[in-house]
# Entry
Amino acid sequence: MEPLPLNVPDGYDVIQRLGAGQTAIVWLARSTRSVESVALKLPRAETAGDAVLRRMFENEVQITLKLEHPNVVRAFDGRPTGSGAFLALEYCSGGTLDQLLLERGKLPLDRALALVRDVALGLEHTHELRVLHRDVKPANVFLDERGVAKLGDFGTGTFAAEDSQERVGTAFYMAPELFGGAPSSMQSDIYSLGVLAYEVLAGVRPFLGESYEALMVAHMTALPRDLRQYRPDLPKAVSAVMSRAMSRDPLRRFQSVRAFMEAYRAATGEAAPVSTPPAAGAAPVGRVTGRSGRSPTPAPNAPLSLGPDDGDGDEAAASSAQRLHDEPSATGPENQRARPAPAAGDDHRAKPAKSRGLFGFLRWRRR
# Structure
């Protein structure tokens, strides 16, 4: 049995290891104040000595504590720096979206539409706070016990105001301009959202390749097959929304996730929710040090229901095994959706590039 960590922050009892990511090891823990289970991220020993990894962990803590939305993995508490650095996250017992697609393949239409909506709402909130995720993909989307999808894993995230030239992301989901050296933007996140949505709806990825270079060419020159070739039951209007989100030209994409959601709701026939202003005197949330006092309040993941005539209108956080898992690398042959489920503790995501060849692409290797 693996020994328990020594750097556990006050107020948490560690139960067992759940997985490992680029910067941290994830433990299932229990809060001694609320008796709630949490996913407790503690930095790896090597993170403190690596400036890139250290900054990634700091970013994740600072960003996640600022976010407060039913479709974003919630941070209850955290400290970004120092020997007591940690991040306590909502424990999502339903696994990741990637795992769901691996196990189920093409999902029922209503379920797939609802998952796309959930992720888009989480990204919309993220952008409203001027945060770029920079690695939107199914492996970074977590499911709670009711199947609500929550965007998580903000280790590669950054604030939009920062002038970052880092090349980060996962090649299957990266926008074409990123391959050419352009900085990340809200439009590049929207492109990744479109690729994710395509995969959820079709059950396959829109762009395939056996190397980083092949994927670069695919994103920059190829056109994905029409979604309705995989899903004849998909409304044409929904297919058109995904095509626009994945436009090679950033200016032709939706210029905000809110605009994406407006088009998506119109295409699926979903009514826009009525927003409720916060109560007067509501306490602020998301302190970077000390206790945030948050409690999980996820929204139900009600399926989107298409009318009878609509057929012609066409995230570390945690999982059930808390597996932060093996995204097929952009330089390996495993790029089809049908691939073995990853082993617990694997994390093959891209990280901010130090240097690797022409494009500075660095993938996290199996430990």
Observations:
- The two ends are 18 Å apart (CA to CA).
- Confidence is low (pLDDT under 50) at residues 275-303, 305-367.
